[in-house]
Amino acid sequence: MTTTPEKTERIQHTEKAQRTEKTAKNLLDPGFELTLRPMRYPDFYERYRDAIKNTWTVEEVDLHSDVTDLAKLSPGEQHMIGRLVAFFATGDSIVSNNLVLTLYKHINSPEARLYLSRQLFEEAVHVQFYLTLLDTYLPDPADRAAAFDAVESIPSIREKAEFCFKWMDSVEKLDRLETKADRRRFLLNLICFAACIEGLFFYGAFAYVYWFRSRGLLHGLATGTNWVFRDETMHMSFAFEVVDTVRKEEPDLFDDELRQQVTDMLREAVEAELQFGRDLCGEGLPGMNTESMRQYLECVADQRLQRLGLAPVYGSENPFSFMELQGVQELTNFFERRASAYQVAVEGTVDLDEDF
């Protein structure tokens, strides 16, 4: 049967209308939703507004005293700092790439995309902070170049990067989330970057920073980390809210296979981060060793699983008192010091019991 141009145009118009109707139904439906009134997901918009209030700049972080502290460190501690700086050099850039290439593309809500735009800005500030940190801690250009090459040259960092790339590659060819299988693949990517990368890899790095801070060392690094910590916690909370929303809209996506994949993913992330910990800690340092880091990572992984509605698998407790006491106190003091200069959301801030 011959199809006339007029009929073809009608079919295309109908298909476009169907796509528009479908777009307005669920958060992961393909399309490019533009309507902010009526607002379908007001919580995402409020998260965007809260993030705007929490603006900070790298210029507010003073690293001068850190230079003096670096000279006081033992060879083992200097090795740890070198590895941390190398990880920080590229970690947030990987997160930014996934945000642009995957999350912004498939989370079909203008409210959510507002927040993701803000998150991308914050990731850029983190990259700038770590670049400034690297320039301060590593004055030799050759050492700086080596730090940026760490994803290729340092096995423990390469393993973490490959973990990230694996889950980025899993959705690389998805232009539209048409099928349930597509949406599950996207959810695994989202959960990976929220629970494993921002919620585990970075939290492991924060623990090393706060260990130095508990000993009165590297105040500038700890100060900047306070800001980064708060931002990453908000990013993770937003991602989990997206997961919760999809679970309400499409509960059949969350089958036994997906739940097992998430659990296995967290296990793999713990092992990758523990390998990094072995590299950093070596034979162990006072108050910081591979076994205590294992317990901490397992504790954090269980918290991430529970937040996702899954059963914990490790049953470990947080061995680091400086994360529960020193880190929390530093956050509180930091917010109080900056309240006069910024609209920092001090009241009802992060639920630290969950995120640590």
Automatic annotation (TrEMBL):
Bound cofactor: record note: Binds 2 iron ions per subunit.
Superkingdom as given in the UniProt entry: Bacteria
Catalytic activity: a 2'-deoxyribonucleoside 5'-diphosphate + [thioredoxin]-disulfide + H2O = a ribonucleoside 5'-diphosphate + [thioredoxin]-dithiol
Transmembrane segments: 186-211
Molecular function via GO: metal ion binding; ribonucleoside-diphosphate reductase activity, thioredoxin disulfide as acceptor
Matching InterPro entries: Ferritin-like_SF (IPR009078), RNR-like (IPR012348), RNR_small (IPR033909), RNR_small_fam (IPR000358)
Class of enzymatic activity (EC top level): oxidoreductase
Catalytic site: 130
Self-association and partners: Tetramer of two alpha and two beta subunits.
Function noted in UniProt: Provides the precursors necessary for DNA synthesis. Catalyzes the biosynthesis of deoxyribonucleotides from the corresponding ribonucleotides.
Protein name in UniProt: Ribonucleoside-diphosphate reductase subunit beta
UniProt lineage: Bacteria, Bacillati, Actinomycetota, Actinomycetes, Kitasatosporales
